[in-house]
């Protein structure tokens, strides 16, 4: 029974975590929000209480939110504000004034010590029983002063001055969304808002409007699967009546902006874009809104959007970037403004048990930038002897059981509080001023214009995530693996660098308090631990690696390779695996007529990495450069993968002796005593946890540094790359008995024939000269690439393994057996400094397929990719995969190898093989379009085994068009069948193995826009195969096949894609029944069993309408979910006399795109004969 319903159970299991949105969530960086504390000495100027959508209260409802909110308002002052953000009444109710819900709000306002304001929401504007003007007059009359804003009901914007520190801008967004509002009036309103903000850059600005410009709720277009499957729960919470497909209509309509109250609506998008443009770079602005019945804080760039709309009811909210916090519960929000210019937000939910409010989130939003505020209070805070006890990251705490899965690592150091000094920006380094910030780094400058950086220890991993994984469990796992790094390790590394006479930056650990001197960076850096160090910007003449490569194309420009090697060995010592081109700067210095560039490392953040636990250990195998920091360095080339091109470009002059000398120098400078001194730079609390282990590991790695250097030298020595300039270069290559000597401009080095396998010499532009001489018994393979220009090449050596690549105009004097390749083609003469890749290999899941015959088939594949000179994308690629069905024992093995450009450019050799058996079942119902299906499935199953192997010459005409032709062989064996089987009853059973020779050809076009989920374009694949049976009947026949697929998405705004497939197959000549052309569920006719119809020829057509329904956003999974409907039709042709009948199948299906990386589709085919499920990885076509 469970097998029968497996597809349904599988889908329900996947959906288990997706149906319900989250009640409460925090961004990965906000989970430790309770530690956010403002300094005790800071005085509060005012608080602003924000609540919305209270109008949904019924007459007899007490309004628990308002009652509990009253308790906090009783402690307010006359400077405070209470603002109702709209939907003060409910247009769906027939209440007249005095309205119950409105009276409850007004009672709260009358008892409030400060000022009360009301703005209108869409429900207020569309209340036909209580017109908006009547509501305004009632509010103003009840409170005894103008409280409804804007006071002029026809105005869109009103400025409200509150002393010198705060400007409130009330915006009537319903008028901005109204088509009937004149465009000039809208433009004028936006201009007014912008002018108010520009005129008050030194003040706090609060924009209050009913409609938010960001939201992760229903109005934002986010619906859970619950909304799609159980749509009636939106009417009543207990109406769990499943209405799939039909239930999706309402969410789809909402998602695509049919209502002007939803963010995806055209008018609403205009509002969002207009306001976003105005406040994008204004960090002193907060937008407070209602509309959504939830509590949210969203931050997009510098824009702070606060949503407080759950005054009387609550709805779901989703954890999606740029949300920092969200909760679908009754509650309200509060903004606090302080004398030092800081603005904080607090959110409160309602605890119905003790009838009190509960603080559920707080955060600093910004600090005022203006200099008009008094500095006395700030300077009066003396941090000189102040010590802060704080942990680097309490979120990394983990149980012992969880540590087995996700690793122990450095968690204890992360969660243990350390005592650290405050960073006093008014006194440190004589006073530091904030200049800018980016990517967890704050740029500071002292009075002498010396620049410093304050780098956060606990960084945000958001930028490391592939698209689709943010705000999910994957992000939390990535964030959790921050614990693989020692939080204070930079203090150790900086001291080691200094002792090794490498650039150091006086790194210090500080706690940066919440201070208005942070200006707009308050929220990102206030209250955090970080490392203060001198910036590389203090050095003159620094250039990037890209710029270095450019200047190296000139004569007399060199790199200090000795110093670069010392840096790289230091990297290996500390286990720093992130050393690509972007992590270096280069400083120039003139010496003996040359310009010498020396390296400066930057962004050194990956070292001492400690990896344990099942999940991290498994993931480490997928990313070879990430190695755990152990007592030895097993494979330095893997640790150095990110620098593989840099090292080949910039370490090519140094000999083995040079490498040994650099390693010994480093070992002499970094003594055991120095190592212990450096590790003791850790905070004492952290040293007690990790100190001794780090000392022992560093000493062990240092003692083996010479061996490590030689191991890495031997790796680099195998493939040498020598690059000339864009000026005329002169290169000399001399073959010696056991070595090869290369001189070129300032370059000279002798290479051992035993250690070096290949030398590549690139002359770049200019009219260059190459001379090759001498002989060698086992010469190194040398490739000379002349580049652009007319070159002169003279080869007087008769040694093998010399390859000359140049253009036809060059003057070549060469002696055999040198190989000459002369062409104007760009792929021959071009040069790239970053094209080296290591060979790759590994296992991966291959497929998972469900069908009624085999139940579930699971696959695994192993892939190899080997590089080669002038071979794109690789020299050799091989994939071996196996697919097995545990239920039936069916086994399929596939083999595919491609030798790229083996004959000429883009002319490949392809080897293809496939084995199926020994218990594989295919179906045979007899030949003909009207064959009967009158028995159980097993009766028609055929046990067999077969294999084929082909060799193709393949031409890659372009990236989208390939063609191939080649010979092959195959065999087919029908195994002995059970007593009750169709082929046995019809006398066509055979246990003889039939062998075939064949000649195959194909042409494939792929002009679709996406290989994963095509939306537009077409594909066309055609095959012609000739089979010659070499035993038994000796049948000879030709099989022709063609398959055309077309994809079309009519509108970018509505993600509905139409997919059409047309196909035809035919056999010419005599053939065995198992070579028939078939139609069935697994290939081209859903709703029928697999291989349901067999014949000489077949025609089929498939149509699918695919629609993306919604985004899946839950903590466990993320991606897209969609539905499709299909209609298939087809028939076979044979020599059997029968009716001219076209068979058809149709049905619905769903697809899920997990994390934007894995698409699974489930279809349910219905026909006049059967009903069949089909489960696929990817779309059917």
From TrEMBL:
Keyword tRNA processing set for record: no
GO molecular function terms listed in the Swiss-Prot or TrEMBL record: hydrolase activity
Protein name: Metallophosphoesterase
Keywords: Membrane
InterPro entries to which the protein is assigned, alphabetical: Bac_surfAg_D15, Calcineurin-like_PHP, Metallo-depent_PP-like
A Pfam family reported for this protein in Swiss-Prot or TrEMBL: Metallophos
Coiled coil (UniProt feature): none
Domain spans labelled Calcineurin-like phosphoesterase: 48-227
Domain of life: Bacteria
């Amino acid at each position: 029974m469970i097998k029968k319903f497996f597809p349904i159970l599988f889908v329900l299991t996947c959906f288990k975590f997706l149906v319900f949105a989250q009640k409460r969530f925090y961004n990965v960086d906000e989970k430790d929000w309770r530690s956010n504390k403002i300094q005790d000495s800071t005085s509060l100027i005012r608080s602003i209480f924000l609540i919305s959508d209270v109008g949904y209260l019924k007459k007899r409802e007490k309004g628990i939110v308002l009652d509990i909110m009253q308790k906090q308002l009783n402690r307010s002052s006359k400077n405070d504000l209470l603002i109702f953000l709209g939907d003060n009444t409910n247009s769906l109710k027939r209440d007249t004034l005095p309205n119950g819900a409105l009276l409850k709000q007004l009672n709260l306002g009358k008892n409030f010590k400060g000022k009360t304001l009301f703005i209108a929401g869409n429900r207020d504007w569309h209340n036909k029983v209580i017109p908006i003007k009547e509501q305004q007059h009632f509010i103003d009359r009840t409170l005894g002063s103008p409280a409804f804003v804007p006071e002029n009901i026809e105005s869109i914007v009103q400025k409200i001055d509150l002393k010198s520190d705060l400007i409130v801008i009330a915006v009537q967004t319903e008028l901005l969304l109204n088509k009937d509002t004149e465009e000039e009036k809208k433009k004028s309103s936006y201009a007014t808002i912008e002018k108010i903000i520009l005129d008050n850059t030194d003040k706090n600005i609060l924009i209050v409007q009913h409609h938010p410009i960001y939201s992760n709720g229903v109005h934002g277009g986010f619906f859970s699967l619950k909304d799609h499957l159980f749509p009636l729960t939106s009417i009543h919470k207990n109406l769990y009546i499943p209405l799939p497909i039909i239930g999706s209509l309402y969410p789809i309509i909402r998602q695509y902006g049919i209502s002007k109250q939803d963010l995806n609506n055209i008018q609403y998008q205009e509002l969002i874009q207009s306001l976003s443009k105005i406040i994008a770079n204004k960090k002193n602005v907060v937008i407070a809104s209602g509309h959504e019945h939830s509590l949210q804080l969203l931050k997009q760039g510098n824009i702070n959007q606060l949503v407080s709309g759950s005054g009387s009811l609550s709805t779901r909210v989703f954890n999606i970037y740029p949300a920092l916090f969200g909760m679908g519960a009754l509650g309200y929000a509060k903004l606090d403004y302080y004398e030092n210019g800081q603005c904080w937000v607090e959110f409160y939910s309602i605890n119905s048990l003790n009838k009190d409010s509960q603080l559920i989130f707080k955060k600093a939003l910004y600090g005022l930038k203006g200099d008009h505020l008094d500095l006395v209070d700030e300077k009066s805070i003396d941090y000189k002897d102040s010590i802060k006890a704080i942990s680097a990251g309490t979120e990394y705490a983990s149980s012992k059981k969880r540590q087995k899965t996700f690793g122990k690592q450095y968690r204890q150091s992360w969660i243990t509080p350390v005592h650290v000094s405050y960073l006093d920006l008014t006194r440190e380094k004589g006073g530091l001023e904030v200049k800018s910030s980016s990517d967890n780094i704050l740029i500071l400058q002292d009075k002498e214009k010396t620049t410093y950086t304050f780098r956060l220890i606990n960084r945000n991993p958001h930028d490391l995530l592939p698209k689709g994984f943010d705000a999910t469990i994957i992000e939390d796992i990535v964030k959790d693996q921050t614990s693989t790094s020692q939080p204070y390790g930079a203090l150790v590394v900086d001291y080691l660098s200094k002792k090794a006479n490498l650039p150091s930056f006086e790194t210090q650990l500080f706690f940066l308090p919440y201070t208005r001197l942070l200006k707009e960076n308050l929220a990102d850096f206030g209250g955090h631990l970080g490392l203060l160090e001198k910036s590389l910007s203090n050095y003159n003449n620094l250039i990037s690696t890209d710029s270095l490569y450019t200047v190296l194309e000139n004569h007399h420009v060199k790199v200090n390779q000795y110093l670069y090697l010392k840096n790289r060995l230091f990297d290996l010592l500390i286990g720093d695996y992130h050393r690509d081109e972007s992590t270096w700067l280069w400083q120039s210095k003139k010496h003996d007529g040359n310009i010498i560039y020396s390296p400066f490392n930057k962004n050194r953040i990956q070292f001492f990495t400690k990896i344990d636990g099942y999940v991290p250990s498994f993931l480490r195998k997928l990313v070879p450069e990430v190695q755990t920091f152990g007592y030895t360095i097993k494979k330095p080339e893997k640790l150095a993968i990110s620098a593989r091109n840099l090292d080949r470009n910039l370490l090519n002059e140094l000999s083995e002796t040079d490498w040994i000398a650099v390693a010994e120098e480093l070992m002499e400078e970094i003594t055991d005593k120095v190592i212990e001194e450096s590790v003791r730079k850790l905070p004492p609390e952290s040293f007690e946890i990790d100190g001794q282990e780090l000392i022992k590991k560093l000493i062990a790695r240092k003692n083996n540094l010479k061996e490590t250097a030689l191991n890495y030298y031997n790796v680099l020595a195998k493939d040498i790359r020598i690059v000339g300039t864009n000026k005329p270069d002169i290169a000399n290559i001399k073959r010696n008995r056991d070595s090869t000597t290369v001189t070129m401009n300032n370059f000279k080095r002798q290479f051992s024939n035993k250690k070096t396998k290949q030398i590549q010499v690139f002359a770049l532009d200019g009219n260059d000269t190459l001379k090759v001489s001498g002989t060698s018994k086992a010469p190194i393979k040398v490739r000379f690439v002349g580049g652009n220009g007319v070159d002169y090449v003279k080869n007087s050596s008769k040694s093998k393994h010399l390859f000359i690549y140049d253009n036809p105009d060059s003057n070549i004097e060469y002696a055999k057996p040198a190989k000459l390749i002369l062409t104007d083609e760009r792929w021959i003469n071009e040069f790239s400094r970053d094209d080296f890749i290591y060979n790759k290999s590994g296992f991966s899941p291959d497929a998972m397929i469900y069908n009624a015959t085999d139940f579930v088939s699971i696959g695994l594949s192993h892939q190899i990719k080997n590089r080669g000179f002038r071979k794109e994308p690789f020299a050799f690629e091989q994939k071996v995969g196996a697919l097995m069905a545990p239920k039936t024992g069916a086994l399929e093995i596939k083999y595919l190898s491609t030798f790229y450009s083996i004959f000429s450019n883009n002319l490949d050799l392809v080897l293809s093989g496939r084995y199926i058996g020994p218990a594989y079942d295919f179906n045979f119902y007899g030949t003909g379009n009207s064959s009967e299906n009158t028995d159980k499935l097993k009766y028609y199953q055929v046990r067999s085994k077969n294999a084929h192997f082909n060799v193709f010459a393949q031409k890659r005409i372009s990236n989208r068009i390939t063609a191939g032709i080649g010979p092959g062989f195959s065999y087919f064996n029908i195994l002995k069948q059970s007593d009750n089987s169709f082929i046995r009853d019809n006398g066509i059973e055979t246990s003889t193995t039939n062998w075939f020779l064949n000649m195959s050809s194909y042409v494939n076009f792929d002009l679709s826009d996406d290989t994963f989920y095509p939306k537009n374009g077409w594909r066309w694949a055609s095959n012609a195969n000739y089979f010659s049976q070499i035993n038994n009947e000796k049948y000879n026949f030709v099989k022709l096949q063609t398959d055309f697929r077309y994809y079309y998405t009519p509108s970018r705004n509505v993600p509905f894609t139409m997919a059409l497939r047309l196909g035809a197959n035919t056999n010419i000549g005599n053939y065995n029944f198992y070579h028939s052309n078939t139609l069935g569920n697994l290939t081209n006719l859903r709703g029928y069993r697999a291989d349901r119809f067999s014949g000489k020829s077949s025609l089929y057509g498939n149509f699918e309408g695919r629609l993306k329904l919604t985004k899946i956003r839950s903590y466990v999974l993320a991606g897209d979910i969609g539905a499709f409907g299909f209609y298939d039709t087809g028939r076979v042709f044979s020599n059997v006399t029968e009716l001219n009948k076209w068979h058809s199948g149709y049905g619905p299906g769903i697809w899920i795109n997990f994390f934007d990386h894995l698409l699974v589709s489930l279809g349910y085919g219905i026909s006049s004969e059967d009903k069949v499920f089909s489960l696929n990885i990817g779309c059917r076509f």
